[in-house]
Amino acid sequence: MSAIELKKLTKTFQTKDHQVEALKDISLKIEEGEIYGIIGMSGAGKSTLVRCFNFLERPTKGQVLIEGKDLGELSEKELRRQRSDIAMIFQHFNLLSQKNVVDNISLPLIIQGVKKSEAKKRAKELLKIVELEDKEKAYPAQLSGGQKQRVAIARALASDPKILLCDEATSALDPRTTKSILELLKEINKNLNITIVMITHQMEVVREICQKVAIMEEGIVVEEGGVEEIFDTPKTKAAKRLILGDKSKDDDILQDSKVKELLKSGKKIRIVFTENSAFEPVVSNMILKFNTPINILGADTKNVGGIAKGEMLIQLTDETKNEEDIITYLKERGLKVEEVEEDV
Ligand SMILES: Nc1ncnc2c1ncn2[C@@H]1O[C@H](COP(=O)(O)OP(=O)(O)OP(=O)(O)O)[C@@H](O)[C@H]1O
User: Fold this and answer.
1) Parallel, antiparallel, or unpaired: how do β-strands 336-340 and 69-70 relate?
2) Nearest protein CA to atom 2 of ligand 1, as residue
3) For an engineered disulfide with 295, which of 75, 160, 180, 315 has Cβ 3.0 to 4.6 Å away?
4) Where are the alpha helices (DSSP H) in the chain?
5) Which atom of ligand 1 is nearest to the CA of 14?
6) Does the interface predicted TM-score (ipTM) exceed 0.85?
7) Residues with Cβ within 6 A of ligand 1?
8) Is the pLDDT of residue 257 over 90?
9) CA dist 164 to 104, 182, 233, Å?
10) For the CA of 50, the nearest atom of ligand 1
11) Residue 253 reports pLDDT greater than 70
12) In the predicted model, what is the mean pLDDT of residues 191-212?
């Protein structure tokens, strides 16, 4: 049984003068213990989707099943109970500024009816998990962004959730702090067996910790599957735009103006290789074998799910012969090869 299953989910907002179809017929499954990414440009429908996961937003059509239970069939009371299994963290942390760290974490438990002393004890235990034991008396204004998110994570864990929804949880943090929060989420996933859903527009977040990913565009899931597979060979235009146009690295090869100029002519090929592929000999052997010139437009390495991935963008020039044989040659040597369109 899946932790979360969406069946033909549709959400339409009715505004004064028009309708917005924020989600269109979305079906997907997130399995227990997974770290699952949902990625898309602004306005793609990510936040609406995640709000449907706990019925903060009721879908117009379709079903949300949490561990097989259809949320649409629950009474208000049952729904409140079910929601305590699903915790959420946000981009702007949503901490209470007049309360100190321990009170921020223990308050939801006290509201649920847990004794004050018990709730504070639990809050202190949670502070150990997020490595902030020394900050229990601090107020949010005295904490850095990363520390505030750690407090928000501790608060989210207070009700022993089975699922943690992270809505742009690292978008307001610098790259180093982002990394440390992602590490913490990985540990929580592993040690507490909590299913994590990462809603993000940051490709590096998905690359770093997710096993599966859904790519959203205009309310539709256009591509879904294993992160490695989708990052190596994105199929849809939306996925290619996000992955090949990933601006998360300053030296991203497709953003370089010289490369953009060169991209205007000739066939471009993107080659992806892992640490196991003998990349350099393959490319030089290819040039020797086919006795043909190619342009190397750029090369880069990225970390996808902990595996070093290299990519190289080459251009076959007007003098290049045997284009199809070259592509077959590279594929036969275990490299992933795809033609790059100009408008990615
Ligand atoms: N309450 C609402 N009323 C009307 N339209 C809405 C409402 N909430 C969202 N929308 C619309 O639904 C679409 C999807 O919005 P949503 O916030 O889910 O996208 P998103 O991918 O999370 O974007 P962002 O990353 O910018 O938050 C947008 O066109 C938005 O304007």
Assistant:
1) unpaired
2) 13
3) 315
4) 46-53, 76-83, 101-111, 116-129, 145-157, 175-191, 203-209, 227-232, 237-244, 257-262, 279-290, 323-332
5) 4
6) yes
7) 13, 15, 20, 22, 40, 42-48, 201
8) no
9) 18, 13, 29
10) 18
11) no
12) 93
28 bridge partner residues: 6
Parallel/antiparallel/unpaired status of strands 19-30 and 4-14: antiparallel
Please, what's the largest Cα pairwise distance for the chain?
Answer: 78
Determine the distance separating the centroid of ligand 1 and the alpha carbon of 12, expressed in angstroms. Answer: 10
Alpha-carbon Rg for the chain, nearest whole angstrom, is 23
Provide the 10 A C-beta neighbour count for residue 295.
15
Residue type, 319: E
Q: Are the C-beta atoms of residues 64 and 6 closer than 8 Å to each other?
A: yes
Pocket test for ligand 1, best of 10, 13, 19 (most atoms within 8 A of CB): 13
Structure token digits, residue 66: 């949490």
Angle formed at CA 239 by CA 340 and CA 62, multiple of 5 degrees: 150
